[in-house]
Amino acid sequence: MQQNQESYVNIFLEREEQTLSPYAFRTSQTRGRERYQAPCQLRTEFQRDRDKITHCQSFRRLMNKTQVFLAPVGDHYRTRLTHTLEVTQIARIMARALRLNEDLTEAAALGHDLGHTPFGHAGERALQRCFSPDFTHFKQSLRVVEVLENDGKGLNLTWEVRDGILHHSGNIDSFGASTLEGALVKYADKIAYINHDIDDACRAGIMTLEDIPVHLRECLGQKHSQRINTMVTSVIAGSVDRGQISMTPEVQEATNELRDFLFEHVYLNPVAKGEESKAEAMLVKLYEYFVKHPEKMPETYRRNTENESVERCVCDYVAGMTDRYAIQLYGDLFIPQVWRGR
Q1: Distance CA 130, CA 68 (A)
Q2: Do 206 and 198 touch, CB atoms closer than 8 A?
Q3: Model pTM?
């Protein structure tokens, strides 16, 4: 049985050598983990990382974290978890078409937002105000998998997956991940959020598809599925048999213009974002309270103050909260019981 299991993993590695593009990252080339871990007899290293991420607590909390709309009324708005699943699906489609390493792509995509704050980017701005201007959700995602998860031991992921998580954000032309698979996650992230944010904004009634400039609809597509297909196809066409990931120029230009349109009409829209200042203020208040009273944090975060600053540990605690947990905790701490529920 042991020999059969070892052969099972070798089948995956041999298949990579036979089928992957010359530009793909081979699992056998991994720089490995910071701490030794005996090889699994049934899964390759990147498959193990995928499973580590999907079974961790931070991944489960994504279901109750805002994507764009704060605590939306309705069951069909995206959350940070559904966003992550859409990114992963798009990334795997492109990886398969380009004959890149699907397991590496999937693991980095699943982990890319593990450190995202409650209330979306409003939470990120709050921690930039009260903790550090250098705080970013992608750095926090790396910290989650390296330090915070697994009862403070971290997930001990491979170097390449951690690199993909860290470099998933920012301008797609800027310095990015060390593998094409990691670079692909950055494109998948933008394709996913641009399109599902349009869908959610239309559902919320703050825009219609007809508001999108005609030339962008003609270039990218009239429908949600058409736009995603256009963008995905463009990445594949612009990257096939090349040592870099890129869109074809026309679609890249239209995609950038569509993103700018969303900033003006959705991301800065007072209907979608009018409550964000309240969310920011709430998180700042929670941060300040626990800096003064670190003993009231859960033991998981409280014990870290022995090795790191109180401010760093409180930032970790606040960043890890879900929207509803932060709201409930704020009510417990600052709103008199007699007023609550009115």
Answers
A1: 22
A2: no
A3: 0.92
